[in-house]
């Protein structure tokens, strides 16, 4: 259901939080580094520049994403569900970028992830917290209208409040830091907001519709986005709030 090509259209902007996250991981010469929900693998492969000596593994449940990721050399890519995947060796760095929002129950999963860490291991993750932005409100609202509600059964991506992540990590005995950042992505116009969402939040909706219904849904959603994100003097700005957590044993 994931389309690496579509996802990578805004790869540069999508990659910025990943780079900001990695910058706060203080691991020195880690040997085992894993990226859960690695997607098309660009960012995972980039970790080799930061930690050239490390054995780096990307894990993702999407065959399409893993196929795309395997174009990168020097990194191992594994197709697996992160809820059941387990490493062969203790991990010095365990990352997950823009993925946990797709995993219901991910807060409870943290203790399992922490159990994979080496005695000096780091856990670092980032997830969006923009689900009350017009982009997502309009999407849920449209999907809930009489025209669409009978055709769609969507598990929407979701995040907890930042304090919940901090409490969970501290309860697990880690030193932890949690923060938020809002990125103001400059896009050409509201149609770019649509294209951005086609690579992520729109994906579970479109996957449930046939071609004709999909086109109709997209046109209705496009009209709503034109109202919510009108083109101004500097194009359209998409505010994107994100939660970051970095923890170590
Ligand atoms: C928004 S993409 C993020 C990709 C990459 N981390 C990045 O930042 O560009 C989310 C990825 O999470 C993966 N994913 C979602 N649920 C997963 C699960 N339960 N196990 C493994 N991967 C999962 C999807 O297949 C997708 O590639």
The unique ligands bound to this protein are:
S-adenosylmethionine
Which residues form runs of ≥5 with pLDDT under 50? none
Sheet with the most strands: spatial strand order: 3-2-1-4-5-7-6
Instruction: Summarize model confidence as the mean pLDDT.
Output: 96
Number of helices: 11
- How many distinct folded domains? 1
Going by CATH, what is the homologous superfamily? Vaccinia Virus protein VP39
**Can you tell me the CATH architecture?**
3-Layer(aba) Sandwich
Count of DSSP strands: 7
Helix content, binned percent: 25-40%
Question: Which sequence of SSEs, written as H and E, runs from N to C?
Answer: HHEHEHEEHEHHHEHHHE
Distance between the termini: 36 Å
What is the CA-atom radius of gyration, in angstroms? 19 Å
Classify the beta-strand content into a percent band. 15-25%
CATH topology descriptor: Rossmann fold
- Cα shape: globular
Reading off the top of the CATH hierarchy, the class is best stated as: Alpha Beta
Can you describe what's shown?
The protein has 249 residues and is of the alpha/beta class. It has a single domain (4-248), classed as Vaccinia Virus protein VP39 (Rossmann fold), CATH 3.40.50.150. 39% of the residues lie in helices and 24% in strands. It contains 11 helices and 7 strands. A 7-stranded mixed sheet has the order 3-2-1-4-5-7-6. Helix 5 runs parallel beside helix 8, helix 6 packs across helix 11 (211-228) and helix 9 (190-198) crosses helix 11. The protein is globular, with a radius of gyration of 19 Å. The two termini are 36 Å apart. The model has no long low-confidence stretch (mean pLDDT 96). Bound molecules: S-adenosylmethionine. S-adenosylmethionine is lined by residues 2, 14, 18, 37-39, 43, 60-62, 65, 81-83, 97-99, 102-103, 200.
């Amino acid at each position: 259901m994931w389309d690496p090509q579509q996802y990578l259209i805004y790869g540069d902007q999508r990659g910025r939080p990943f780079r900001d996250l990695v910058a706060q991981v203080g691991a020195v010469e880690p040997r085992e580094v894993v990226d859960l929900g690695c997607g098309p693998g660009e960012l995972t492969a980039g970790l080799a520049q930061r930690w050239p000596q490390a054995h780096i593994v990307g894990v993702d449940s999407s065959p399409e994403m893993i196929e795309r990721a395997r174009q990168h050399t020097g990194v191992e890519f594994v197709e697996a569900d992160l809820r059941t995947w387990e490493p062969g060796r203790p991990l010095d760095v365990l990352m997950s970028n823009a993925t946990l929002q797709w995993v219901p129950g991910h807060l409870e999963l943290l203790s399992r992830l922490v159990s994979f860490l080496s005695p000096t291991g780091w856990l670092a993750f980032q997830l969006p917290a923009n689900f009350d932005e017009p982009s997502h409100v309009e999407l849920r609202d449209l999907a809930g209208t009489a025209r669409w509600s009978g055709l769609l059964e969507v598990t929407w991506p979701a995040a907890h409040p930042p304090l919940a992540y901090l409490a969970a990590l501290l309860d697990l005995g880690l030193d932890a830091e949690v923060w938020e950042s809002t990125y103001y992505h400059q896009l050409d116009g509201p149609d770019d907001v649509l294209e951005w969402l086609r690579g992520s939040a729109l994906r579970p909706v479109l996957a449930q519709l046939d071609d004709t219904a999909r086109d109709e849904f997209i046109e209705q959603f496009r009209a709503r986005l034109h109202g919510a994100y009108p083109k101004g003097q500097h194009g359209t700005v998409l505010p994107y709030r994100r939660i970051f957590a970095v923890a170590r044993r």
